[in-house]
Design brief:
Length: 682
């Protein structure tokens, strides 16, 4: 998250998570809220996968979670206020959880609300006399305070918020091309907006924050949704299918892109990517509106609209300090439009040319509605892949690549069915629920495709994708190449409550070799340079993930088909090529730039220094891009503006055609050709 926090400061958006109780809690409402909390504590005590001691240590951890939810950057509360809160509530919340007492939620919130109002008043005062803001002094702002202590003195507090104001003004000048006077006016307007937002949140919103502070102690996938949030969730689901075609989430004040839905406006545009942050929205010709710290449902409502209308998003791409503006025409994205895509590539190895089929799977999909209605032509991953393999076999392919990069999962039954195409029979995944272990497996005794296979994965390959990749690896049925996967190996179920729903973890998935996919994910046999920072993305980056563990193995180690000598040979050949491959060199340098930005916690408040640092970063991106283009005998770009135009033009190209030219796919085709050549030699 650190890179994005810096970016938001650069863009002049204050890190304000403003919440407010806009209604008085009457006796009946209070009883309802308390009953829900009591029901949740009982449900988790009896059905959650993880057993927790509800004691004073639990209470302190919950309180920290709640304070971090309200003030995740440690910039509103003072140390004195935090001490006061811990003195009263530090060892009380465990008892309140068991008996269903939610008073602390609102008393602590009132302290927070006063702290936010204090900031607004102070910055409004500064804006009345902006001549006191000096932009020529050589000072820096520590923008990432998540691990910093709370402010001890008023002087520290005001100095920080003065610097935040200066940074916002500089950003408006730099990124929106406003004059100094226009930037001051914009900031004054923002202060009015922030004040209005203080009245936006309801009792249910605050209660949800509080309850989820308890649930975070269990694991990151156990959550409570209020009735209002369920409505917001339904809206967000509609967004996935009828707006821009992107799955969004709210995370520490940011609206983050989780997944791009195939065949939607975002997928067609190719610019918006997972892990990008949407910071402002302009809809139907209106001016941009900042959405930092907005509730997810409100942000989704702003992005949604009638089919055929236009929405503009201001986005901070991963690894960039500069905001981009993307324009989308809203449209309906039907589930049945999603599906597997394929093509054939060729590669030489040991003086022979081999034809390799490539299947890109965006998810493990299945049209359950059509299936339940008895529609014989219902759409599913396995059915589509089976048809594709038939076509590829007619083209006499020598091997097959299954591309699961960015595949966030889907239907467990489809994982099981798809695996059945590549093995004669046997278990596919183990499931542990209620202390008992069972398994799902293939039993049709036939193998639909028996030629060499490679599965491609990356950090965004999660859940069902990991189960498939792990099974292919454990059986030795196919090599896994790419980067370690997400590590989502838990099972959730939903329980209805009087006010909302509880989603809780009640089981875990295990590989057939006994190891869990939880936390560790799947480690490829051949590693590619990372695209995403594992410290920022993945199960291990989340708070309180369930640990990795193992159960009994279901496979015979002597018969699992693994060949370590072959893997070592293929890895060596890959490394020799990658050392001089323009795409792999670029990916390695790109990741290094992202890591460099992530480590930096400070930003200059000097105009000249700020402009120079921005230019230096743009030059780095231009340099590694031109280095790649030169190595490919392509025309180099003149400047950073030309790079932006190049990326826009590239985004207009057909996605399948881009996949055919994808550097990782091209290298994977060569790896598989090497494997086939070795097999034929034997």
């Amino acid at each position: 998250m650190k890179i994005y926090r810096k970016i938001m400061v650069l863009m002049g958006i204050l890190l304000i998570a403003i919440v407010s109780v806009g209604e008085v809690i009457n006796g009946e409402k209070k009883e309802q809220l308390n009953k829900v909390l009591s029901d949740i504590s009982f449900s988790l005590e009896t059905t959650h996968y993880k057993n927790l001691d509800i004691d004073d240590e639990f209470s302190k951890n919950v309180l920290k979670n709640y304070l971090d939810t309200l003030d995740y950057n440690h910039q509103y509360f003072t140390q004195a206020e935090v001490d006061e809160i811990y003195e009263k509530w530090g060892t009380q919340l465990d008892d309140d959880f068991l008996k269903g007492d939610s008073r602390a939620a609102f008393e602590i919130y009132d302290i927070y609300k006063n702290a936010v109002e204090r900031v607004i008043q102070y910055q409004t005062k500064l804006l009345k006399n902006p001549k006191n803001l000096d932009f020529n002094v050589d000072e820096k702002l520590v923008y990432d305070r998540e691990d910093e202590p709370y402010f001890l003195t008023k002087k520290e507090y005001e100095n920080y918020w003065k610097k935040m104001l200066k940074s916002s003004i500089l950003s408006l000048e730099e990124y929106e091309d406003l004059t100094y006077e226009e930037s001051i006016d914009r900031m004054k307007s923002r202060m009015v907006t922030r004040k209005k937002l203080l009245e936006k949140k309801t009792t249910d919103d605050i209660y949800s924050y509080f309850v989820n502070a308890f649930l975070k102690e269990y694991d990151p996938h156990t959550t409570y949704l209020s009735a209002k949030e369920i409505t917001d969730f339904n809206i967000s689901m509609k967004l996935q299918l009828s707006g821009i075609g992107a799955v969004l989430t709210g995370e520490k004040g940011f609206i983050k892109v989780v997944k791009i839905m195939p065949d939607g406006p975002a997928a067609k545009g190719k610019e918006l990517q997972p892990e990008d942050k949407i910071i402002a929205v302009a809809t139907d010709g209106k001016t941009f509106e900042d959405i930092m710290d907005w509730p997810l449902g409100d942000a989704v409502n702003l992005i949604r609209g009638k089919e055929g209308t236009t929405v503009k998003l201001r986005v901070i791409p991963s690894g960039s300090k500069t905001a981009k503006e993307y324009t989308f025409v809203r449209e309906n994205v039907k589930l049945e439009d999603r599906g597997a895509r394929y093509f054939i590539k060729e590669a030489k190895s040991k003086n022979s040319t081999y034809k390799i089929g490539v299947i890109n799977l965006p998810s493990f999909y299945m049209d359950f509605d059509a299936y339940n209605k008895g529609d014989k032509n219902y759409k599913s991953t396995t059915r589509d892949v089976k048809k594709i393999i038939e076509k590829l076999n007619k083209g006499n392919i020598d091997g097959l690549i299954i591309d699961l990069r960015n595949n966030g999962g889907g239907s467990l039954s489809e994982v099981n069915n798809l695996m059945g195409l590549f093995i004669p029979y046997g278990p596919v995944v183990q499931v542990k629920e209620g202390g008992r272990v069972s398994y799902l497996g293939d039993s049709d005794m036939t193998t639909y495709f028996d030629k060499p296979v490679i599965v491609m994965v990356n950090r965004l390959s999660a859940s069902a994708s990991e189960i498939f990749a792990a099974a292919m690896q454990d059986y030795g049925r196919g090599l896994i190449v790419g980067t370690p996967t997400f590590g989502k190996g838990t099972i959730q179920t939903i329980k209805g409550l009087d006010l909302g729903e509880l989603k809780y973890t009640n089981g875990k998935f295990y590989r057939i070799n006994g190891g869990s996919t939880q936390h560790k994910g799947v480690t490829p046999d051949i590693l590619f340079p990372p695209t995403y920072d594992s410290a920022e993305i993945g199960e291990s980056s989340l708070d309180n993930p369930l640990p990795w563990d193992e159960v009994d193995s279901l496979i015979n180690g002597e018969n699992n088909g693994n060949n370590n000598k072959l893997k070592e040979y293929l890895a060596k050949k890959h490394m020799e090529r990658a050392a001089n491959d323009p795409d792999f060199i670029y990916n390695t340098k790109r990741y290094a730039i992202i890591k460099e930005i992530t480590k930096d916690k400070e930003i200059s408040l000097n105009r000249e220094v700020r402009e120079r640092e921005t230019k230096e970063l743009e030059d780095k991106w231009l340099a590694i891009t031109n280095e790649k283009m030169k190595a490919k005998n392509e025309t180099e770009l003149k400047d950073y503006k030309a790079l932006e135009e190049y990326n826009k033009e590239r985004a207009k190209k057909d996605e399948l055609e881009l996949l055919k030219k994808d550097g990782e796919i091209i290298e994977t085709v060569k790896i598989l050709a090497d494997e086939i050549a070795v097999g034929k030699k034997r």
